[in-house]
Design goal:
two-stranded antiparallel ribbon; 2 strands; elongated; 106 residues; 6 helices; mainly alpha
């Protein structure tokens, strides 16, 4: 009986998380800005719909790819000092880096 209850609770938690993710995706996809999240391994984990126009490929195609692949070698090398600073958890620079990646301007 306990196992059944745990399974029901887990399934409900998954449904709640999926609805929350779908809501976030809808909001992010409709913002007039590029929103990107790369993990500590520099793998793209989230990008909103406007990236499709900016990079000429679907979000699904970019997700899971390395930052260097998404940006291209030249752009990656230009941004590398900022990327490394962000990975060292320099909050102000990380925020600035994220804004820069999104807009390509400071």
């Amino acid at each position: 009986m306990e196992l059944t209850n745990a399974k029901v609770v887990a399934e409900k938690a998954i449904r709640v998380a999926q609805k929350s993710e779908a809501r976030l995706r809808t909001i992010a996809d409709n913002l007039p800005a590029l929103i990107t999240y790369f993990d500590a391994g520099q793998v793209l984990r989230f990008a909103n719909k406007p990236h499709e126009e900016q990079f000429g490929q679907g979000v699904g195609e970019m997700t899971g790819r390395a930052m260097k692949e998404v940006l291209g070698k030249d752009e990656y090398e230009k941004r590398k000092p900022h990327i490394e600073a962000a990975l060292r958890r320099r909050c102000a620079k990380e925020t600035r880096w994220r804004a820069w990646v999104a807009t390509n301007s400071w």
